Amino acid sequence: MKLPTRLRTLTPLALLACLLLGCNLVQPIRKEIEKASAPQLLTSPDGKLQLTVPVGWRNDPELHAEAGLRASNRLSEMYAIVLTQSKDDFAEKVTLEAFTDLTRQQVLSNINAPDATAPVAATVAKHPALQYTVRGVVENIKVVYLITVVETNTSFHQILTWTLHSRFDQNWHTLDEVTQSFREISSTPPVRQGSPAAPPPPPAAPRRKRP
């Protein structure tokens, strides 16, 4: 049987795909594969904050009730939330350093056996930031937090990412990438209820393997 001219111009592999799947199916399948392998842009419900997370991550509302953004890759035990406080809630003398100290002390008080590094200067989306790590125990699980406090024109944002102690070395780069992807896309401060120094949530309990 003589093949149509359109099929005769295809490479052997493309021809095989067309014969097995139908040429009209190849392009949609390719698009789905590309979509599944692309980073995902997450936007807060109020449309004012964004994070870009890698493949394997998803929006995870269960992590924290008050966080504007919540994402995780539970298979790799990586988690991230963003807590935001309007600068209107503080006196003008409250600087990035002062806010970081306030929230850092609150974090340390909610972790057993905390071991924290001193905050170091950083930049996130061209905004000044301070970043530090905290190692400790939460609900009998050893965890490491990578915490970054970002100051924008209107708000202080706490970007809290964490993973299991045993996985921090391999997951640190990804947690930092998620942190660096943070964007404030509105000059109006997001509305947030509760304490400005709300502690991070405990990590999700590891899943037990079935016998």
**Poorly predicted regions:** none
Oligomer: single chain
Residues in helices, as a percent range:
25-40%
The number of E-state strands comes to: 11
Question: Beta fraction of the residues?
Answer: 25-35%
Give the overall pLDDT as a whole number. Answer: 81
Secondary-structure class: alpha+beta
Q: SSE order, as H and E?
A: HHHEEEEEHEEEEEHE
Given the C-alpha coordinates, what overall shape results? globular
Radius of gyration: 22 Å
Compile the SSE list and pairings:
Layout: H1 5-8, H2 12-21, H3 23-36, E1 40-43, E2 49-53, E3 58-59, E4 69-73, E5 78-86, H4 96-109, E6 112-116, E7 120-124, E8 127-138, E9 141-151, E10 155-164, H5 168-180, E11 183-184
Antiparallel strand pairs: 1-2, 2-11, 3-4, 4-5, 5-10, 6-8, 7-8, 8-9, 9-10
Structural description of this entry:
- This protein is α+β, with helices and mostly antiparallel strands and 211 residues long.
- It is built from 5 helices and 11 strands; from the N terminus they run H-H-H-E-E-E-E-E-H-E-E-E-E-E-H-E.
- It has helices at residues 5-8, 12-21, 23-36, 96-109, 168-180, and strands spanning 40-43, 49-53, 58-59, 69-73, 78-86, 112-116, 120-124, 127-138, 141-151, 155-164, 183-184.
- Strands 3, 4, 5, 6, 7, 8, 9 and 10 form an 8-stranded antiparallel β-sheet that branches.
- A hairpin with a 4-residue loop joins strand 4 (69-73) and strand 5 (78-86).
- Helix 2 crosses helix 3.
- The protein starts with a helix and ends in a 27-residue tail after the last strand.
- The mean pLDDT is 81.
